[in-house]
Amino acid sequence: MKIKILKIFYLLLCTMVLLSCKNEVAELIKDEPVKDITGTWKIVSLSRNGEELAERLDLSKFKVTFNADGTYTLQDQMAFTVSGPGSYQLNDSQYPSGLIMTEQGKEPEKMTFRFPVIAGKRQLSLTLSPGCEGNVYQYNFVREN
Questions:
Q1: In terms of Cα–Cα distance, which of 78, 95, 81 is closest to 32?
Q2: Longest C-alpha distance within the chain, in Å?
Q3: Are 127 and 138 in contact (CB under 8 A)?
Q4: Of 69, 73, 48, nearest to 132 (Cα)?
Q5: Mean pLDDT of 24-43
Q6: Domain presence at residue 24
Q7: The domain containing residue 109 runs over which residues?
Q8: Which residue, 115, 128, 142, is CA-closest to 81?
Q9: pTM of whole model > 0.85?
Q10: What is the mean pLDDT of residues 43-62?
Q11: Mean pLDDT for the chain overall
């Protein structure tokens, strides 16, 4: 009889413990924040078909500024998918995989978008093929202070 009462007691105790616990997994899963790319971004690396081009090109002058109103401007010229000012949008504000830039008076240009944190700094990584599709460029930017 004592063993049966002990089993019931432990069963009730376990049930109470399980019911009193919060669902911590549900609390950990939150909505992904909207990606904010506003600001001026400078190139930290550029590769073509996997070959680093920074040693052969002066990348210090090329910058892209994304404004809060959905417009962008470029500083200096580079083999980039657009060459003048225009508008931009991410294909999804929370989970973007693409960036669409539309130069004034031209067709929209789509590129692959990544937003990683590398060495503690947020980077903006764009992969595109301006002109020849056999050449794939990867631009990695960091936000200017």
A1: 95
A2: 88
A3: yes
A4: 48
A5: 79
A6: no
A7: 39-143
A8: 128
A9: no
A10: 90
A11: 86
The CATH number of residue 118's host domain is 2.40.128
d(CA 46, CA 81): 14
Asked, for residue 26, whether it belongs to a domain, the answer is: no
Cα 142 to Cα 19, 40, 51, 77, distances in angstroms: 47, 8, 20, 18
Residue 65 and residue 73 in contact, taking contact as beta carbons nearer than 8 Å: yes
Tokens at 87, concatenated:
């508008």
Is position 5 within any domain? no
**Is 29 a domain residue?**
no
d(CA 81, CA 60): 18
Q: What percent of the chain has pLDDT over 70?
A: 81
Tokens at 131, concatenated = 């002109």
The total number of structural domains that make up the chain? 1
Question: What confidence score (pLDDT) does residue 113 get?
Answer: 97
